[in-house]
Amino acid sequence: MIYTVTLNPALDYIINVPEYVSGAVNRCASEKILPGGKGINVSVMLNNMGVESKALGFCAGFSGGEIRKLLEEEHISTDFVELREGFTRINVKIKSDAETEINGEGPCALEEDYERLVKKLDAAREGDVVVLAGSTPPPFADDAYRDILNAVNKRGALTVLDASGASLKNALAERPFLVKPNHHELASLFGTDIASRADAVRYALMLQEYGARNVLVSMAEKGATLICEDGRVYGSDAPKGKARNSTGAGDSMVAGFVAAYAATGDLYKAFKTGIAAGSASAFCDGFASASDVKKLYDLL
Ligand code: TA6
Q: Would residue 79 show up in a list of annotated catalytic residues for this protein?
């Protein structure tokens, strides 16, 4: 089983605003609401690829209930911990001349909530994969992933972490099987800039020194690079195509990688599938289909 854990899910309110002007009244040309948050997006993409997963994490209030409903309408299994206070955030994506994201902080998740979540992960066994992805809610934001990884490692499942900043850095000592920063997130960890795949490899090797076993660095139109725990390094340009939607492309890459690795145990196949899935989603308005992914995979 593949478990996705979204500690800070979101309803994504995606609006198209022609010539957005800050400080003025802007009228949307279109708007839609989708269940979001990085782990949930991984489950949505896995579902599109015909791969079963169970979506775990924290939900709260009316917006959390809407996320459950929307996922269950897509036949995605969920088992969220209901937080007692607050409401799941609504993240705004303004698509205009540029894409602007406004991501909320999210409701507090307390120790008792983490205890309930970790209990649900007791079911994870060797051969399963646990994907931890996205921002972490207050007040334990920086240590949440470290503590969950510590508990999951005792169960023997493979762990995948898509996080940034302190929540990523503090979790590396728990030796996650795969970490998937984008090149901006990797650069900001080291207070530098990463402009090339060669730079990305250099800093990814440092993440391995801190404990990451395999490091997949997504670089949008510059492609991606995978640094394996056995020393192999793979790099690929992004497939050619017109980018239409960046929301969820990185999450789709994680989904493609995990789906292929769970099926084959082959890191290179997983790398190519991750690239194909991430680009396929970037080339469409939502999340790509299995056939979209296969078409791009065959071109790599
Ligand atoms: O990658 C897209 C996305 O997952 C959106 O669903 C949006 O809600 C945002 O990223 C959430 O990211 P965060 O890092 O705030 O958890």
A: no
